[in-house]
Amino acid sequence: MWSDPEDINNWAVSPRGAGWLFGGGVTAEFNHVNGLSLIARAHQLIQEGYKYMFDEALVTVWSAPNYCYRCGNMASILTIKEDGEKIFTEYGAAEENERDKGMQTRKMAMPYFV
């Protein structure tokens, strides 16, 4: 979904320039018509990693911690079990250069032409 949820009831023009803003009434109608209880979506930064809206009829999940190395946001993964239980795994960004700690630096080879 390129459109974004907003605390409105119907539709509104999106300031992103693509898609629309939609509210709780639109979400309830969509879920009812399609026999759904939850819309799970992404592609919108959520500082806490995930956010429910409209009486938990919609959830936005964001899985890129510290987006663009500057947003300071958390991230999460949503797991929905067979019985419908929803489990969020939340995580923050790894320390910068964490993967390189303890690695030996590359030794320079002798130049080909001496």
Automatic annotation (TrEMBL):
It catalyses: O-phospho-L-threonyl-[protein] + H2O = L-threonyl-[protein] + phosphate. It comes from the Eukaryota. SUPFAM superfamilies: Metallo-dependent phosphatases. Keywords: Hydrolase, Manganese, Metal-binding. One of its GO terms (molecular function) is metal ion binding. InterPro entries: Metallo-depent_PP-like, PPA2-like, Ser/Thr-sp_prot-phosphatase. This is Metallo-dependent phosphatase. The lineage of its organism: Eukaryota, Fungi, Dikarya, Basidiomycota, Agaricomycotina.
